[in-house]
Amino acid sequence: MRAPVRARSGRPAAHGLERWAGVIAVLVFLALWEILPRLGVVNEFFTSRPSLLAVAAVEVLASAQYWSDLALTMQEFAVGFGLAVVVAIPMGLLIGASPIARGIAMTPMMALYIAPSMILLPLLILWLGVGLASKIAVVFIASYFPIVINLLAGMDEIDGRLVRVGHVFGASRLQLFSTIHLPATMPHLLVGLRLAVGRGLLSVIAAEIFVSSAGIGYRIQMFGNSLRIDRLLVYALTVSIIGYTMSRVIGLLEERWGARSVS
C-alpha cells in the first residue's frame, strides 16, 4: 500500500521541481547575460544587457509608435489567421470525407505545406501589391495548410462503424460532420491551430521585414540596421510573448478537451 502512495505524491513534487528548474535556468541566463558584457567577455554593443533592455522597454512601451506597429501587425495576423480557420475547417472535413477529393488535393497540399510560404511573397506582391492584402495572404497560406493536414490526419482515425451507424439512422452529411467528424477530429484540429499560430506569426513578421513601412517586422529590421539591439530585442520579445500566449491558450483548450474526452 505504501508504494502507490509515494508514486502519487511524487508526481506533484516532480512537477514542482521541473517548474523551479525552469525559473532558475532563466535567472542564471539573465545573470550571465548581465555580467559577461560588463566584464568584457562579450561585446555589449552586439548583445546589449537585461538592464539596458529594461530601460529600452520602458521607452518603447511609452511611445505611440510601438502600439501603432503592434496594432498593424496583429490586424494582418488576425485577418489572415481568421480566414484560414474559416476556410480550412470545412475544407479539411470535406476533403477527408471524400476519397476522390483527397486523392486530387493531397499531393498539391503537401507540396505547399512543406514549402515556406515566404517563397510566394514576390508573386503575392505582384498580384496584391505591398499593402495589407499581401501580408494577409501570406498569413493565410502559412496557417491554412497545418489546419487542413491535421484535420485529415484526424479523419483517418475516425471509427468507420460510427459513420455507418449514422447512415443507418438517416443522418445527413451535415449531421455527420457536426456529430461525428468534428468532435472526433477536435484534438487534431487544436494541434493544427497551434502549429498555424506559429507559422502565421512568423510569416507576418517576415513579410513586414521585406515589404512594409510599419509594423513589428519593419521595426525589427530598422533597429537591426541601426544596431539598436536593445530596442530590437524589445520588439522580438513582443513577438515571443504573443506567440507563447496564443499557443498556451490553445494548449489549455487541448488539455480541457482531453479531460472531457476521458471523463
UniProtKB/TrEMBL annotation:
Keywords: Cell membrane, Membrane, Transmembrane, Transmembrane helix, Transport. GO terms for biological process: transmembrane transport. It comes from the Bacteria. It is a multi-pass membrane protein. GO terms for cellular component: plasma membrane. It is found in: Cell membrane. The chain crosses the membrane at residues 20-39, 79-98, 110-130, 136-153, 201-220, 232-253. Residues 70-254 form the ABC transmembrane type-1 domain. Pfam families: BPD_transp_1. Its main location: membrane. PANTHER family: ALIPHATIC SULFONATES TRANSPORT PERMEASE PROTEIN SSUC-RELATED, ALKANE SULFONATE ABC TRANSPORTER-RELATED, MEMBRANE SUBUNIT. Belongs to the binding-protein-dependent transport system permease family. This is ABC transporter permease. It comes from Acuticoccus mangrovi. The lineage of its organism: Bacteria, Pseudomonadati, Pseudomonadota, Alphaproteobacteria, Hyphomicrobiales.
